[in-house]
Structure formats: structure tokens, C-alpha cells
Design goal:
The chain is an alpha+beta fold. It contains eight helices and seven strands, in the order H-E-H-E-E-E-H-E-E-E-H-H-H-H-H. Helix 6 packs parallel to helix 8. The structure holds zinc ion (ZN). The site of zinc ion has 8 residues, from loops.
């Protein structure tokens, strides 16, 4: 018999330090970032009325804009302070005037220090300029570096803040059976004396075996065998 542990030991200890950075953010700390395509932005620029006041993020944009989840600057700073009150960041390089040096792509590389460890991060503001852009770049770089420590990793996994570009999402074309598979089926129809037309009708009215989706190949063979067996049984009765 072992001694019963004190009840406090049954409760999981609250994560601290770097472990705390990995804890998911509560829903109220997750913001929605509209991510319009270039075409959507241009449509609203050309005609203000092509946009709507969005009830998800509160800004004016095209009604079909996709939103990405992200953790805002204040929530991330709060978490970094909880993990390590002495956290800080610095740019990777300074320019000749002593200010943080931006890269040729107007992005900023930083090093984020938490609990005696550091991670590099990169931030950008996607074509925006001015003071607000600099703040956005810093926030973006901090999110990126903190993500390397595991902060809000689940959100990045779902959709990187900069990953969605112009590409339209096309429904995937179903893959059809190969020519070899078609020949195999035709041989089976022939050897078992099952009319192909019967199968095409049963398969949803496709006109030709070339229109048979690859995922239905095995099912087609089963169908032909069953059909042949049924015919044989009918003939015997
Ligand atoms: Zn919105």
C-alpha cells in the first residue's frame, strides 16, 4: 500500500516559462484578420459600394474576404510577460543612424529573448507604409519569433498570416481509371459475358469506362462478378 498523495499533487501544475508560451490562447484573445485577394481589394477601391461593413472584424471590405485567426500584439505581450517579465527583442541589424535596419523587402528580422533563450523572427506589413506599418511589422515579427517558441502554433498551423495569396481554390478533378484498368475491366466483362452497357447505366449513366473514377475501380470489378453470378443463378433456376 502506498501513501495517498496530498490532493494538490493531483492537480496539474500551471505551466510556467517557455511551457506557458505553448499553451493555446483563449478565444477572446484571438482576433480576426481580413485577408482580401488583390482582386477583392481592387473591386472595393474601384467601387466603395462593392464592400460591406464586416460584422466579423468591423472593417469595410469585400463581402467574400477570408479571415485568419491571429493573436494581437497586446495578448502576445501579456503572454510573454507572464512567461518571463524580462523578455525583450532586438533587431538583427541597425542602420547607420542607429535605427533598426529593414531588409530590401521592407521586412524586419528580429531576435526574441525569453527565459534565457532566443529565436529569430521576421515581420512584414505587406505593402503598407508609414508609422502604422512599422508597428505592424514589429508585431508581425514578434508573432513569428514567438511562434518558434510554440506560441499560438495552432493558429499558424491553420493559416499562416502571410500564406494565403492570390491562388483560387479549385475543386480537385477526380482521377479516372487508367487505360490498363479499362482494358482489365473490358476483359472481365468479356470473360463473364456481362454487357458493358448494363454497368455504365448502373454506374450513374456514364457514357464510357473512361469516365469511371479511379476510386470506383475495385467496386466495378465486384459489380461485374456479382452480376455474372446473378445471371448464372437465374439460368440455373
Ligand atoms: Zn472582416
Amino acid at each position: 500500500m502506498t501513501d495517498k498523495k496530498p490532493s494538490t499533487a493531483d492537480e496539474p501544475a500551471k505551466p510556467t516559462g517557455l511551457d506557458l508560451l505553448r499553451m493555446p490562447f483563449p478565444a477572446h484573445q484571438i482576433s480576426k484578420l481580413p485577408k482580401p485577394t488583390k482582386a477583392q481589394t481592387e473591386a472595393v477601391k474601384a467601387d466603395f459600394k462593392a464592400g460591406v461593413r464586416c460584422d466579423i472584424c468591423g472593417t469595410w471590405h469585400h463581402p467574400k474576404v477570408v479571415h485568419l485567426d491571429y493573436v494581437g500584439h497586446a495578448a502576445l505581450t501579456d503572454r510573454l510577460l507572464d512567461a518571463d517579465p524580462h523578455w525583450y527583442w532586438e533587431p538583427l541589424a541597425f542602420d547607420q543612424t542607429g535605427l533598426p535596419a529593414f531588409g530590401p523587402d521592407k521586412g524586419l528580422w528580429i531576435r526574441l529573448y525569453v527565459c534565457g533563450h532566443s529565436r529569430i523572427g521576421f515581420g512584414s506589413a505587406d505593402g503598407k507604409t508609414g508609422g502604422d506599418a512599422v508597428k505592424e511589422i514589429i508585431g508581425d515579427a514578434l508573432r513569428n519569433a514567438a511562434m518558434r517558441f510554440g506560441a499560438a502554433l495552432d493558429l499558424w498551423h491553420k493559416g499562416d498570416l502571410h500564406a494565403i495569396e492570390e491562388e483560387e481554390i479549385k475543386p480537385a478533378e477526380p482521377e479516372m481509371i487508367t487505360e490498363d484498368q479499362r482494358i482489365e475491366l473490358m476483359a472481365l466483362f468479356g470473360s463473364l459475358n456481362v454487357p458493358v452497357a448494363e454497368f455504365l447505366k448502373a454506374a450513374g449513366g456514364i457514357k464510357d469506362l473512361r469516365q469511371l473514377e479511379a476510386s470506383r475501380f475495385d467496386g466495378a470489378k465486384t459489380w461485374i462478378n456479382k452480376r455474372a453470378k446473378a445471371v448464372r443463378e437465374q439460368e440455373q433456376n
